[in-house]
UniProtKB/TrEMBL annotation:
<feature type="active site" description="Proton acceptor">
    <location>
        <position position="447"/>
    </location>
</feature>
<feature type="binding site">
    <location>
        <begin position="178"/>
        <end position="185"/>
    </location>
    <ligand>
        <name>NAD(+)</name>
    </ligand>
</feature>
<feature type="disulfide bond" description="Redox-active">
    <location>
        <begin position="43"/>
        <end position="48"/>
    </location>
</feature>
<dbReference type="InterPro" id="IPR001100">
    <property type="entry name" value="Pyr_nuc-diS_OxRdtase"/>
</dbReference>
<feature type="binding site">
    <location>
        <position position="268"/>
    </location>
    <ligand>
        <name>NAD(+)</name>
    </ligand>
</feature>
<keyword id="KW-0274">FAD</keyword>
<feature type="domain" description="Pyridine nucleotide-disulphide oxidoreductase dimerisation">
    <location>
        <begin position="349"/>
        <end position="457"/>
    </location>
</feature>
<keyword id="KW-0560">Oxidoreductase</keyword>
<feature type="binding site">
    <location>
        <position position="310"/>
    </location>
    <ligand>
        <name>FAD</name>
    </ligand>
</feature>
<dbReference type="InterPro" id="IPR023753">
    <property type="entry name" value="FAD/NAD-binding_dom"/>
</dbReference>
<protein>
    <submittedName>
        <fullName>Dihydrolipoamide dehydrogenase</fullName>
        <ecNumber>1.8.1.4</ecNumber>
    </submittedName>
</protein>
<comment type="similarity">
    <text>Belongs to the class-I pyridine nucleotide-disulfide oxidoreductase family.</text>
</comment>
<feature type="domain" description="FAD/NAD(P)-binding">
    <location>
        <begin position="7"/>
        <end position="325"/>
    </location>
</feature>
<dbReference type="Pfam" id="PF07992">
    <property type="entry name" value="Pyr_redox_2"/>
</dbReference>
<feature type="binding site">
    <location>
        <begin position="141"/>
        <end position="143"/>
    </location>
    <ligand>
        <name>FAD</name>
    </ligand>
</feature>
<dbReference type="InterPro" id="IPR004099">
    <property type="entry name" value="Pyr_nucl-diS_OxRdtase_dimer"/>
</dbReference>
<dbReference type="GO" id="GO:0050660">
    <property type="term" value="F:flavin adenine dinucleotide binding"/>
</dbReference>
Amino acid sequence: MNKVSTDVLVIGAGSAGLSAYRSAKEHTNKVLLIEAGHYGTTCARVGCMPSKLLIAAAEAAHSVHTANRFGINTQAPIIDGQAVMHRVRSERDRFVGFVIDAVEDIDPQDRLIGHAQFINDHQVQVADHTLIEAKRVVIATGSRPSYPEAFNNFGERLIVNDEVFDWQDLPESVAVFGPGVIGLELGQALHRLGVRVKLFGVGGAIGPLSDPVLKDYAATTFAEEFFVDADAQVTNMRQVGDKAQFTYTDGHGQQHSEQFDYVLAATGRKPNVDKLALTNTSLELDERGVPIADEYTMQCGDSNIFIAGDASNMVPLLHEATDQGTIAGHNAGRYPDVRNGLRRAPIAAVFSDPQIAMVGESYQQVSKRFGDCGCYEIGEVSFENQGRSRVMLKNKGMLRVYAEQGSGLFLGAEMIGPAAEHIAHLLAWAVQNKMTVPQMLEMPFYHPVIEEGVRTALRNVNAKLKFGPDIIRHCIECGPGA
């Protein structure tokens, strides 16, 4: 067996791992990068990029279906499933190619292929060919889809989102389990591309929303377009021939048994740490077997081991995974000089229609932190009558903003509505800069734009904070919500 020594070992060549490798290299030349599978990040290969390609095709089809609302009469679009999926795969491969090129630019002496397992805190074995003595280690092994054991009853009819993007053609029907980010995006997109879709969940959750007002609004809105049961009762799950079959009870108490070409399990993701033999280390693990780490340093306890990305107990999005990798890499490179890294304001978006966005502290976090003390206020705006939204016939949605009573500090927001991905950035910048609501209201708002709805929500909460006049109910130029 080959024996190698290094200053920093990075396990995993995804978004977090590549960031960790580059950052560690700023402090030492002795850095090794291990990858067990294919090069190419989760985002590029099976996540954010291919899903947006499918969503873009769905939006194109939907715009033809709804053109008559503008007085433009068209024929129903003919959807070529093979052509749709060919573009998804080819563009996906293009994005993956960029990542592979970046990895191949790394010195071959710094790269190893194989599954890694810890022997102890400083020794890691790679497959059956290399034993590495590492002064410091960064775990960046990513995550994989997970689902309840009962779903295996669907046999080969069960798929996860990773497999959708390898389809050669669109199926006739898909049952989606899990109305979170992945399930909601893919379920709606497939529906708009002519696939018969039913979306099921447990507990009433829709996307990442925690605000009960917005959860109810979202459930109603999406159910108006296609079948959504966010709190389903499902039994008798099995494969029948080349179909997946199960029974569910609808909102009226009626039972239905249906068959689908596929069941898409979008019920969550699981950190890829279970095969690392972490029990051979001194690390403290949580109930899922994931190392417990400091969110500002990414250090696991006071050890020489750091963790970043989806493998961590923080389950970050891509931009956060990259930040975590940067922090972990720098700290592993200059260890024992461990420093706090920059953690940006939380921001998340769901590319459904209407879009969903979360910024800063969620309703759940704010209400838990402040309780019933009356120390925070909520402002809101509906986009149903907001000027620019109605012009574009994108007038579905609501924004709720949270602010601290007394200081006027803007805490966060949840939203379902048009341009949520863009509005989220404005609000995240405000959170990161610790702006107050009065300060935010001093910022310019052009007319007519959807972002004027943000000003309406801020005026609404500002009045409750007792900092200024009541909300302006009507805009002289264009009506309410400006």
